[in-house]
Each structure stands twice: as structure tokens, then as C-alpha cells.
Amino acid sequence: MTRGALIVFEGGDRCGKTTQCSKLVEYLQSTGVDTQMWRFPNRSTSIGQSINAYLSEQAHLDDAVVHMLFVANRLEQRTEMLRLLAAGTTLVLDRYSYSGVAYTAAKGVPGLTMEYCKSLEVLLPAADLVVHMAMTPEATAARGGYGQERYEKVEFQKKVMEAFESLRDERWAVIDASGSIDDIHKQVVAVVQPVVERARAGAPLGKLWD
Ligand code: Z5A
């Protein structure tokens, strides 16, 4: 049996990840590719509810603790993620471990380094493709709904952008997220299609940070 692809969208707050994930899933399904969309954090689990309380500033948590919760929120989906990929389902993820590393490292807390954060997620599969929706924090801040959660501050988002840039490797495709929704979608389809085909042809699933 051929496996599904693991496609991840990353980027700053309000850059259009959810919009593009939804359009991609719709497109892939219309072409007969079995596809599901997932979001991280998954706020529906009990761990996700603690994360939600933290992000919406209803609860205060130590930075190391909240980082562990984000990691655990992915690990609790690990078995199902691996099962679906092996069964041929392509997963489109709205954020993943790359956000975990970038947001925590951007805080600059001693000890919570990129290397430390990476080390906690080596049990998870690596993305076949990370679509980085690149846009300045000033431009995303001008979009509706910005500023409602803990990290939605322009200065902090600039540090997150720098962290994302330092994580990029050959599996990343950078797309200018300031264009129109339809133009971005066309660019996304162009980078995703070959990756889905490679996974279908049997390219092995990688491990995070290998
Ligand atoms: N976080 C973390 O710290 N550690 C972790 O491990 C993980 C996450 C996984 C919550 O994430 C926070 O958790 C996040 C990172 C941190 N903090 N921040 N910042 P989230 O994914 O739940 O939150 P989000 O990034 O803020 O997602 P969002 O608000 O849903 O934004 P989005 O998905 O990127 O954008 P959107 O919903 O598709 O679009 C936003 C608006 O822009 C909407 O009105 C659209 O209609 C509009 N839009 C979209 N595309 C366009 C274009 N091309 N032009 C014009 N307008 C557009």
C-alpha cells in the first residue's frame, strides 16, 4: 500500500494558514486524494483545553510547562497520525512541531533553546513538505482578529519569523502570503502535488530533526 503525505503549513499569526489548508484539502479531495486536515494545537483534548486557557490568558503557566503541553498535544495524536499516513491518507496540518520550536525559542528563556525543544519531538514524523506562509507581522496585524491571544504582538512575531527562517531546509517551500487567496492556492498546489506523488510512489517518511 502507498502512504499518504505529511504536509504542514507554518507561519505567523493570521497569515492565512487555515484558509490555505482548507482550500488544499478541498482540492486534493476533488482529485481523488484521501486527505484530512488537522490543527495544532488541537484544543479539543484535555491537554488542548489547558493550552487554550493559556493562549487566551485565562491561565498562567511556566514557559517550560506550556511547551511540554504543546509537545504532548502532538504526541497524543502520534499513533493516529502514523496509522493514517501508512493507510494512504494525506494529512494537511495547520501548524506542527516547527511552530513549537519557533514560538518557544523566540521567548529567549534560558534553557528553552531550539536544540532542547527539538529533542522533545524526535518520536514524531517529519513533514514531507513545510509550506511557510511568509508575511511581515505588521501586515498580518492589519488583518481582522489580530491581538486577541497571548502571542499576537508584533515584536514577538518578528522573533518568531526569525526562528522559522533558521529552521528552513530543503523540505520547506516559502510562499509570499500577502498575495490573493487564489494566487497563493495555485502556488501551494504546485509545490504540494509532486510531494503527494513522491509519497504515493513510496518515498520513506522521515523523522523530525534527522
Ligand atoms: N503555538 C505554539 O506556541 N506552540 C506550538 O507548538 C503550536 C502553536 C502548535 C495558536 O495557534 C498559537 O499557538 C499561535 C502559535 C502558538 N500563536 N500565535 N500567534 P493557532 O494556529 O490556533 O492560531 P493562529 O496562527 O493565530 O491561526 P489563525 O488566527 O487561525 O490564523 P491563520 O490560520 O494563519 O489565518 P486564517 O484564519 O486563514 O486567516 C486570517 C484572516 O485573514 C481571515 O480573516 C482570512 O479571511 C484573512 N485572509 C486569509 N488569507 C488572506 C489573503 N491572502 N488576503 C487577505 N486576507 C486573507
Automatic annotation (TrEMBL):
This is Thymidylate kinase. One of its GO terms (molecular function) is nucleoside diphosphate kinase activity. One of its GO terms (cellular component) is nucleus. GO terms for biological process: dTDP biosynthetic process; dTTP biosynthetic process; dUDP biosynthetic process. It comes from the Eukaryota. Belongs to the thymidylate kinase family. It is an enzyme of class 2 (transferase). The chain holds residues 1 to 210 of 270 of the full protein. Residues 9-188 form the Thymidylate kinase-like domain. Its EC number is 2.7.4.9.
